[in-house]
ATP-dependent zinc metalloprotease FtsH
Amino acid sequence: MEKKQQSFSLWYFLIAFFFVLLLQNYLFTPRVANLTYSEFKELVRRGLVKEVVIEQEVIRGELKMENLEGVLPPKKVEEFGKMGEGDRRFFSVRVEDPGLIGDLEEAEVKFTGVRINTWFRTILSWVLPALIFVGIWVLLMRRFSAGSGLMAIGKSKAKVYVEKETGVTFADVAGVDEAKEEVQEIVELLKNPQRYGRLGGKNPKGVLLVGVPGTGKTLLARAIAGEAGVPFFSMSGSSFVEMFVGVGAARVRDLFAQAQASAPCIIFIDELDALGKARSAGPTLGGHDEREQTLNQLLTEMDGFDPRKGVIILAATNRPEILDPALLRAGRFDRHVLVDRPDINGREAILKVHAKGAKLASEVNLREIAAKTVGFVGADLANLVNEAALLAARRDKEAIDMKDFSEAIDRIVAGLEKKNRLLNPREREVVAYHEAGHALIATALPGADPVSKISIIPRGIAALGYTQQLPTEDRYLMLQSELETRISVLLGGRVAEEIIFEDVSTGAQNDLQRVSDIARRMVTDYGMSKELGLISYDNRSQHSFLPMVSPGVREYSEDTAQRIDQAVARIVAEAHDRVKQLLQERRGKLETLAKTLLDREVLEGKDLEEILRMSA
Ligand code: ADP
Ligand code: MG
Ligand code: ZN
């Protein structure tokens, strides 16, 4: 729209310009007769010319009021006749004529030379092209700046989004109760910045919201501002990174200046990873300078401001692992809040939030829908309600019924599986048995840390599920038997897959890494193998102050290395056999547990105890 208008105005300008040009030529130039040079000379010779003005290229003049009949062709005479009374002006294109002055003097014609006034031509030849170029330039710049802010160097106001009132409250964010609890303190702090600072405690400055896309990080940030009733300044990390070095840094400065002027408030930086990727260690080949400058400016600003004023910086990312460690240091984004994928209860709550605006048939059971949407995040569920409403509307229904929901689920699931964001049912089953295996071994072996939680909700990118064990007390020493138990629990997942599916998956990679690590340390560091005895073969500690020096150096022979490998393998193999036997004895429990997990997704420690007691 806007663009069109601009090009129109340029055309108007050009048309107007030429119109003025025409006006100049035809209206304001007095009418004169055009004579050939020979006609002019003839008139001079006959003494009919009153006066002339000799210009560089033309001769202008006036004739005496005498009869021209016979001197000029009839057409020209007529032309003079048409002119007004006493008006006999003419012009003639000048030719090279050295005798002209002599002739004029002889005929006693008044003559003057004139330096022709060329302002008009100057305009034409210089100003007009310049104007056209300026016009084109302005147009291009406007177009550019719409996309990238080329014109807005250092003037970033257009890019900062300020909301005086977000209008979002915690009631709009469902299913992430833990995260909400953690940020509750920030709301209090914003409502009451002085009270917190008064006791000398340090307010948090930066809080990092971590979670996969669509879990509601942006929503939660806005809800915090809404709950506290403070303005919400937001900017996307990617919008800081600009074409020109220095622009992003200026934006950051600007953002903080604006925010501090309206404290208490929240600064929210979305997609922090776009800006805060770890700075490259070596010299860069250019291209990253801008991002680094911007990041440095952000760090400087964060260090520089006083949190007691009540400015809290929130940031969101789904890839915390790639962030520059400097960003995560104390006094910066040192608090991390996990905005996790919702479990079945969470999904039900989120569905309730989004179903508020929709007309549901009475038969619709949100719990049932929540059960069918494993792995969906908040954004997917919002999308689901929307999609179901569209389907119902297409069929002219009065309200959305279960059939619309199932169809919408099928569509969205297909899309998400294609994008690899959802486990298919088979994968989910494998994950459930795997985690059940871990948990069962942990409960079967004495001395294992108790299981506090099992989940088959994918977390982050790597972990498809997890079994969380919490130690009951701080440990300074580990017994050999406890290390062996640990290895067994780690192997539990893999062995459960072996037993149930008679095939194994790649899901145990991390478990096996840790198993090998513990077993190797038992052999080389702790003297816990009969093969190698009480000798430390560890050469890591000696060189820890120079980690890069000769990393491959061993202080034992090739033969010893082989024996170490064999001892490690034996420890793992023995543990494997033990675990296999344990799980085979408890196959019934394993299946019950896995099925319950598939059903409920998350089990707390006490649920686990109960299930195991029941399925004795
Ligand atoms: P993120 O920033 O984590 O990628 P958003 O906050 O942008 O996710 O979420 C996108 C949309 O999905 C939200 O506007 C909201 O409609 C919906 N949504 C996401 N999470 C939730 C939630 N926990 N509760 C309610 N709605 C949610
Ligand atoms: Mg977001
Ligand atoms: Zn595992």
